[in-house]
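Minutes, structural biology subgroup

Action item carried over from last meeting: produce the structure token record for Sulfotransferase (Taeniopygia guttata). EB confirmed the sequence was re-checked against the source entry. Recorded below for completeness.
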Amino acid sequence: MAAFLLGAVLLIVQPQIVPSRPAINSNAETSSQSVQRELLKKMSQKNDFKENIHSNGSCQQLPQTIIIGVRKGGTRALLEMLSLHPDIAAAENEVHFFDWEDHYRNGLQWYINQMPFSYPHQITVEKTPAYFTSPKVPERVYNMNQSMRLLLILRDPSERVLSDYTQVFYNHMQKHKPYPSIEQFLIKNGELNVDYKAINRSLYYIHMQNWLKYFPLDHIHIVDGDKLIKDPFPEIEKVERFLKLSPQINASNFYFNKTKGFYCLRDSGRERCLHESKGRAHPQVDTWLLEKLQEHFHEPNKKFFELVGRTFHWHTFVAS
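Output recorded by EB:
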């Protein structure tokens, strides 16, 4: 891994849009940024790279914060809301560096090239929801930066399963391809199909155990995805505090769009909503099947609550 890290460089970058220079925030750099700068300093002393600094002072750098998941938990909404803060520079696309072998083999140079240009006082953020459920990712992130600040947004596990199916269903519909009903995935031989990938992704405590092998709990902030949908500002305030950001985002940055049925963003007089693919209606599921799903998650949810020392108000069903 040491050889891998020493191979990282900052010069060879693809042309990207560079931000105009904002007012400098006087806040001290995060410990994660300090770690990264020490790493880059050591590499520069060995003449292993030349920094690519734009004339306005911005450059591409490794992320100090990663939104690791969960898939269909609200990661895009979280990233868009967090990007309202002037000290956040967010990668536009999901990078899949740590979970896709073809990307990981490209090395840190390739990873840096996927990042936006940012200033030294800004926090670079990337999101790839698949990181949370990929067994090999925690160690890889740790080897890159032990001080990484991680954001994890979770929602009711049963609802997340339905949303997971809904996304794949619409993807097939757009390509005019048939797709089985959700019942065909959830039921196998008359019982709940516990091998269905969407169900396994909602077993949060299993995946969280893997991350806690490498990162302490105080380096992982869990965003309540269900609360973020209903009342985003309090949840974003907590994220600001976790990242040690000055309080710049306020309640006026959010407004409820009655047509879409969820909150949209307002920034410097400009209004925008999430893509139309977000907030789609879930398929109708028979009550008995939904209860079966909720019953399945009852014990795993309890284990997760104990693991993180926090309770979430997720639907549950216990057979009498």
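Discussion: Confidence is low (pLDDT under 50) at residues 1-18, 20-30, 40-50.
Next step: EB to file the record with the rest of the batch.
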